[in-house]
């Protein structure tokens, strides 16, 4: 029998919330596999869609155990906020120091996270000795810096922001010691040096205010097109996405991402935060949630968008208040490390159930109801009646939903037919198949898996009944009396032994 575990958010401050349906609490509370109550992390939800969800971090914060706990569990990727920048790694020419960056890669290794290296060539946080070099020496110094750092982190860093912030707002090239010495060639030179040092790392150009269509993103588009034409090693474009509620959402973000993707490049959201003028209020907070959600949706809609990194996950360690006086509250978690509405919005966009927002979250956005439509437990067919109810506050896309009804096969053929006999939503939108369980349990060596080709279930809505039926191809008999999901009730009632998944994540029921 299965366990009922506290939801993962319980340890972040709120009381542990126990599972879902009333019926489930009658079941054993000991041992057993995962169940529907455990809330998937942002990274798990993203990973189910082939993306990562990450956060920036910085060395001083890692001594904060509660902070590090969430960083290590909720996120699948980290970016050092400062510790791989030039002023840290080569403060004096030729004197390299990777100690702080190594702490970050060590944390990532311990927590099974990938690392985006940030950043090799940037006009900012650049030690003054670089700008003081005669221009004839800048290229060699740049190449050496890239070579030393990218070689050091080979294998520990999966992607590099090789050049950061090459453009001005109007799309002209930003001046820097590198641009001044080499003109625009410094970018190709930097990429080639990084590729030589670490041929496996994905190499990016990264900038802000290139999230939407506009002069600056046009400039980036022209640059990367030219680099690709010239065969320069380049894998992706990083969109920092330092957004602000008072500036509006980037114009056509998804279309902009798509045009880079169409060049054959990866796209990453590398430094997402959404700041606001303080104090925060309900309207600004709602706008912020919507921006986080829209960024997430844009990334999900673009296949080459590989993932999202927030520029630290909590207001406690945000760079915003010190950089933009009077602004803040930009992150997914507040200063007490409690998830904010934006966190919930991201979860929902990623296909998770609502409920990341702390108190008041609903443990199950969908529930399964069942009735037995089969008067005989010993005949050659099993006839479950099923209906799903959206118990949440957001619509659920039915194509993300699967349902499992567990039974035992007994003797006879190991092949099955399954049927949808009738449903008000139309049997043509209902898919069904019999699957042999990977780990057969008593009463549950097979399950009927039900899915949907499309449709949306609004909050409070139900699919109405779905009349299902299955048989073995030799029409041999079943014994349903011991079937895990079997119930004798002939009118619809909540069914905790039928599991419902959204985007592959359990949202209802207890697995056998
Ligand atoms: C910021 C860090 O978060 C701060 O701690 C530091 O003082 C300044 O830099 N764009 C970037 C990041 O590419 O490197 C910046 O990080 C934020 C803006």
What report would you give on this structure?
By secondary structure, this protein is α/β, with parallel strands linked by helices. It has two domains: 17-38 and 361-508, Sandwich (Immunoglobulin-like); 42-349, TIM Barrel (Alpha-Beta Barrel), CATH 3.20.20. 25% of the residues lie in helices and 25% in strands. The chain has helices at residues 42-47, 65-74, 86-89, 99-110, 128-132, 138-152, 177-182, 185-197, 215-229, 253-261, 282-301, 320-323, 341-349, and strands at 52-57, 77-80, 114-121, 159-164, 202-207, 236-239, 242-244, 266-277, 305-310, 327-328, 366-372, 384-390, 396-397, 401-407, 416-422, 430-441, 444-452, 456-457, 466-472, 493-494, 498-502, 505-508. The N and C termini lie close together (6 Å). Residues 1-37 and 355-364 have low confidence and may be disordered. The structure holds (3S,4R)-3-hydroxy-2-oxopiperidin-4-yl beta-D-xylopyranoside. (3S,4R)-3-hydroxy-2-oxopiperidin-4-yl beta-D-xylopyranoside binds next to loops. Residues 81-82, 164, 240, 271, 319 line the site of (3S,4R)-3-hydroxy-2-oxopiperidin-4-yl beta-D-xylopyranoside.
Helix-strand blueprint:
Blueprint: H1 42-47, E1 52-57, H2 65-74, E2 77-80, H3 86-89, H4 99-110, E3 114-121, H5 128-132, H6 138-152, E4 159-164, H7 177-182, H8 185-197, E5 202-207, H9 215-229, E6 236-239, E7 242-244, H10 253-261, E8 266-277, H11 282-301, E9 305-310, H12 320-323, E10 327-328, H13 341-349, E11 366-372, E12 384-390, E13 396-397, E14 401-407, E15 416-422, E16 430-441, E17 444-452, E18 456-457, E19 466-472, E20 493-494, E21 498-502, E22 505-508
Parallel strand pairs: 1-2, 1-9, 2-3, 3-4, 4-5, 5-6, 6-8, 7-8, 8-9
Antiparallel strand pairs: 8-10, 11-12, 11-20, 12-19, 13-18, 14-17, 14-21, 15-19, 16-17, 21-22
Helix pairs in contact: 6-8, 10-11, 11-13
